[in-house]
Amino acid sequence: MFESEETILTAYGHVLVNVYGNKKKYPIFTFHDIGLNAQDNFNNFFINDTGDLFGTGFCVYNINAPGQELMANEFPTGYRYPTYDELVLMIEEIVKYYDVKSFVGLGVGAGAHLMLRYAVKNPDKVDGLILINCVETKIGWLEWAQEKLNVELLKDFGMTKFTENYLLWHHLGQCLWECPKIELQAFRRYFETRPNTGNVAAFINSYLDRSTIDIQNQEKPFTVPILQIVGDHRSAFVQDARYLHSLLDPKTSELLELFECGSNVLEEKPGKVAEAILFFLQGMGFVSWLNVHDAVKELVKKDEAPIEKKEESKTTDTTNQPTVGDGGFIENILII
Length: 336
Known about the structure:
Belongs to the NDRG family. By secondary structure, the chain is an alpha/beta fold. It has helices at 38-49, 84-97, 110-121, 141-157, 161-172, 181-192, 197-208, 238-247, 265-268, 270-283, 292-303, 307-312; strands at 3-10, 13-20, 26-31, 58-63, 103-108, 126-132, 226-231, 253-258, 333-335.
């Protein structure tokens, strides 16, 4: 799949967009999670793990939040980071820049919340949503106080062990002792050397100050098709995903819980995630010619291999990124 980069000037600063595929094909817009950037979250999945599988029918636009790319300059004095509602407006600018009429949105964590917020405001522009580790509600008071401390530590002292452990919990789950050691070590190395920690703190702070997305009190029922993907008990977000699922239209939404998987589903189970996404897209009428089972058969087999063995075969350049993430609907709720 061909990759290119474009920097787009928006009302909230310059935004880097990684583009995978031919722009004449159907668009998928993605948004990454806190502490990472678009390449960290999606490069392995779309390039190394699934190859050209998505490039056959889609063009993927990976949006970086302002200042989150590794080589980004530090924000100037007085810069105010956009709120989550303003980040929605930023996405609108990017969609207009590419002259896209409608698209499928894919988000992870903080990016999933943002994509859902965008879709609720612009349901006519979103044909479907794929949400990984999505939290629909605002943050609770106790969690808010703890994470505000993390933000201040990042701004004043850079990456501390306290903040690093918070990010590990967010990205890998609440049972770190059950995570594959190579995955845990790779994330630790990445966060320990992460530049521009003040920029990272600004994005985290914006996410912490989010409001609840009011899905049920819209002028029209919210019926955008949604596929949610989350890990099982190791994930920090499984209860949030179940709660969101209870608010959605059961005719157009589904929840996939991946067995023996933490929060980092794109890296731990890329085959099963790709399979679920492709079936979801086929249910919407895309790539109807593709035999999904055959296309992902080898990928799903690799999901069952120990992650230590999978990592040994990777050829990704890890100089500027971690060795880890960087016909009809499936069942309404599925645990596999």
